Amino acid sequence: GGGVHGGPGPPPPPPDDPDSALAVSLRATEAAAARLEAARRAHGTAREQAAAAQVRAAEAARRLERAEEAAGPPDGREAMRADLLREHAAAEEAHAAAAGALAALERDAPDLASLQAGHARAEAALRAVNDRRTALTRRIDEAGAVVTALAGDDVEAKCAAIAGELEAARAREARLAAQARAHLRLRAALEEARDAARDAYFGPVQQELAPLLALVHGQADLAFDSATLLPSALVRAGAEEQMDALSGGTREQIAILTRLAFARLFARRGQHIPIVLDDALVFSDDARIVQMFTALTRVAMDQQILVFSCRQLAFQDLGGARPLVEVRPAG
Predict the structure, then answer these.
(1) Are 4 and 38 within 8 A, CB to CB?
(2) Gap between the Cα atoms of 204 and 231, Å rounded
(3) CA 143, 148, 149 angle in degrees (round to 5)?
(4) pTM of the entire structure?
(5) Blockwise average pLDDT, block size 10, the chain, 331 residues
(6) Phi-psi region for residue 242, left (φ > 0), alpha (ψ -120 to 50) or beta?
């Protein structure tokens, strides 16, 4: 609530001038009237607040009365409170269990978008089956119409003729199958014989070539073409390098080493064939050409090798005997 605080205060001292005294008296009167009006408004506000407080108090009293009626007699309220607390705890446990069950259902529930997509796919498949069934029904009807139209055109005789043709075709198929099996057996036998002949031919050559090839290319092997009987690839570290992909120096070295291997093979059979190299090893680098000289020297220990070259500086480490031509005057 509000109100007017403080008194009017001590009166001012009376002025000597009557007019001044009147003015002072008027101002004091106006101030008193203003304070009175303020007091009246404060009194009205206080009355309204008091009335509202009475209403709230009455409502509170009614609620208290209803609460006391609901709570029952005072001596049983403690037992009711304990029951309510137990019911509250049970309700909380039930709520926790329901929340856990809800979480489990949400976790295990299938994805709605996936279910909708599966449903749409099933509907599309069903429509496709229905369309297929409609098309087949139409084709059956058309076939029935054709059969009906051909019923008077000696269909039985045509069926018998077609059956005879089918039997003849089956017999011809059996004969062709037998011929195919025979051809396959012949082909397998020819391939086996070819492989055996190739091994008999290339095996000794590979045996003679291996130590020579190791001098120049280390742990390498040479593959031969069974059709042309020529080197087809250089095998290094399990990878085949076709002859066309090799450098000119490597191809040149392989060609010379292969000839040396064949010459050694013939020499072991008692057929000594001279080896003539004319302007060979023109593409080999310095390291490889020295290794090739070693291979030539190894073979030359058992048979004759003639090397012709105009590159005296490059072949100065070849070794061997150089021919000497001496011109003497006649007489």
Answers:
(1) yes
(2) 15
(3) 95
(4) 0.40
(5) 51 66 84 88 89 89 82 77 86 89 82 83 89 91 76 72 90 91 88 72 80 85 77 85 88 89 86 87 86 88 86 82 80 63
(6) beta
Beta strand 220-224 pairing with 239-242 = unpaired
> Backbone phi, then psi, for 228, in 5-degree steps?
-95, -15
Parallel, antiparallel, or unpaired for β 275-278 and 305-308?
A: parallel
Give the Cα separation of 101 and 253 in Å (integer): 83
**For residues 197 and 227, what is the distance between their CA atoms, to the nearest angstrom?**
12
Per the CB < 8 A criterion, the answer to whether 79 and 86 are in contact is no
Residue 302: DSSP 8-state: T
Whether 249 and 285 have beta carbons less than 8 Å apart is answered as yes
In this predicted model, what pLDDT tens digit does every residue of 58-99 receive, in sequence order?
Answer: 888 888 888 777 777 777 777 878 888 888 888 888 899 888
- Helices 155-217, 286-300: crossing angle, 10 deg rounding: 90
Token pair listed for 47: 């009355």
